[in-house]
Amino acid sequence: MEKIEGLCGICPGGCAVEITMEEGRIKGLKPSKEYSPAAICLRGAKAEGIVYSEDRLKTPLIRTGEKGEGKFREASWEEALNYAADGFLRIKDQYGAQALASHLGRGTFDQGTDDFFANGNPGNKNFGFFAPLGSPNGASVGSMCYVAYGILAPQTTMGLNAKDFQPDIENSDYCVIWGTNPPTASPPFIHQRLNQARRNGVKLIFIDHYAASMSANVDELVLIRSGTDQVLILAMINYIIQNELYDREFVENWTHGFAELKEYTQRFTLEKASQTTGIPLEQIQFLIEVLTTKRASLITYTGLEYSNSGVQSIRSLFSLWALCGHLDQRGGLLLSKPNPKKNPNDSHFGSVKMLAIGEREFPIYHKLVNQPQFLKAPDAILHGKPYKLAGLLNVGAAMTVNYPNTPLFEKAIKSLDFFAVVDRFFTKDCLYADVVFPATTYFEEESYQVFPGKVRVRRKIIEPLGESLPNIYILQRLAEKLGYGHLYPKNPAELYAMRFRDQPEVLEQILSGAEEVHFQQSNEPIRYRKYEEVYLRSDKNPGFPTPTGKFEFDSELLKAYGFDGLPVYVVSKEGWNSTPELAVQFPLIFNSGARIQTTFRTQHLNIEDLVAYQKHPQVIMNTEDAEVRGIRAGDVVDLTSPRGGIQMVAEVIDGIPRGEVEVNVGGGDPGQLGLWAQASVNHLTDEKNIDPISGFPVFKNLLCEVTKAKE
Q: Would you call 29 exposed, middle or buried from its count of C-beta atoms within 10 A (0-12, 13-18, 19+)?
């Protein structure tokens, strides 16, 4: 046995770990630095004795049987790359470059890959692996994660992205955590700050539809019925306006649409909000008191995205903070100058004339994110709308498990003319692939992670297993076959040179062997109310980078595309109130998407020692709901919706409102263990039930039923 120190890198935090080696295989991981009470390393697991190399892809594979049969043969890199390039170029010649698409997932967990794919970049003219060929279709999991919160909502409200504002937790009286669970974030840096802030006297308020792990360490727990967050927010806005508790100076000088907001929110009262949300009236009044008399910071994330008015819910939340004077104020949300991320190869990409997939249906998504909305990919593959999509490269994503309506996405991917996958494990997607390329883990590659003010170099810990390669070099080799290999680095030296070409002092230190490089940041003291200065706007005027130059309660951009400019509430397409007949058969509210500590979406559920921390996929349900159904904790249950059913295991708690269930996401891949392999929650979801602004699927506030399994 050999023990060495290294950077885990399973999450972007690059946590330091002690690694036990035996015959070149990783046998154990033990955090050498505690990042949270759970000793965060592998999604919070104190992971000892893990065989991480289990079931790894080690050699390129070419399919020999029918799609879905799982029959493949090993191939050399040269043969596999030629086979893939020929397949993609044949499609380009037959249908045009727009018939090619790439899709990038979080399974890469590598900033180098993301940077060269320009993942989530709203500033790029083109996007994706096939952009140099002229394809507009560079998709990512941003089609159903982060983008509504991180780009669409803040851009249409204050002209910024989520990365352009940060909670001033340390100077807050209260920090409100709304729709997110910081202990399971990747990396868990906010959780560390929250723990320290609470020790220093900052009070924490946690608002969610069930008592996730963070709720055990807060001062106030607010349980809210799923899908009703916006009702609560708008009622609070109405009360604050009617009682003139808002920041009058900010509203009069720096906002647009206040009169319209005032008129619209009058229909939302605290009493009705209490009835709708299930929150006691006195607790709502407490929240109002905090927001109108104390310094309050905000931490939110994707929890509000997955409803029929996801973008507008998040816009209403930002509006509440602005109304109460917590925007760029001490202890509130601090703003910074927009600084769009640039792809290292921007200058090489030409213009693309074709519409991207989903651009017609979701124009604001495309305008601000410059990606296709991949939920429309099945329409393009199966029905040629707006044109035929025939070739797809998927890097580090489990599309057939993560997207709504699993059978539809399986059918679509099976129908592709050519499909290539880059991954570390043989996922369900691989069953339908023509060629599979084996990628390395963080342990087997050298790369970097950029943090505020510094770059951390991640050194290789072990040699790659088999013939696996880092994502970025697989892409370079395939790009070489397609005629643009020069746009991608071939080795770490080129990776650093291309990425840090505009930071020569950083590049020099990295190439000289530095593990961590600090670069110059402003030493100026924190300034507040920067919207009063020439700071946020590129036209050298004070204000916000919006069409009006102000914080927009009433968004001019949304109205220009035919949407409501105000944060208008939309009743759920499916739910107790909207579909009462359906609710008779399916009386419980279904929620899914929350992370658990030892997995990340679909990842790590094939690793026996990690699955041991939670052996089965769970339906978390209220004690009374379980009792009337004769269900006890640990029972195998049938979870059904109007669209299908799966089996899971019941977890019974008091910390979830009656009538609600929280369902673990991530199962449904045949390579996973136990019930996880069958538990794809997306057999229960609907790709047509969406937020019309973002195109994001509704993963919360659907209808379901839970019954004790007979078998």
A: buried
Question: CB under 8 Å to 519, separation ≥6 — which residues?
Answer: 453, 454, 455, 503, 505, 506
For residue 348 the two structure tokens come to 């090489």
* Omega prior to 187 cis, within 30 of 0: yes
Cis peptide before 386 (omega within 30 of 0): yes
Count of beta carbons in the 10 Å neighbourhood of residue 55: 11
Judged against a pLDDT cut of 90, whether residue 2 lies above it is answered with: no
Report the sign of the C-alpha dihedral through residues 268, 327, 194, 450, in that order: positive
pLDDT at 50 over 60: no
Could you tell me whether strands 644-653 and 636-641 are parallel, antiparallel, or unpaired per DSSP bridges?
antiparallel
Using CA atoms, how far residue 352 sits from 97, 134, 266, 674, in Å, is 10, 6, 46, 46
Cβ burial of 540 (10 Å; 0-12, 13-18, 19+) is exposed
pLDDT at 42: 31
> Residue 295: left if φ>0, alpha if ψ -120 to 50, beta else—which one?
beta
> How many angstroms separate the CA atoms of 181 and 655, rounded?
15
Whether residue 619 is predicted with pLDDT greater than 50 in this model: the reply is yes
d(CA 63, CA 429): 13
Residue with tokens 């290292």: 344
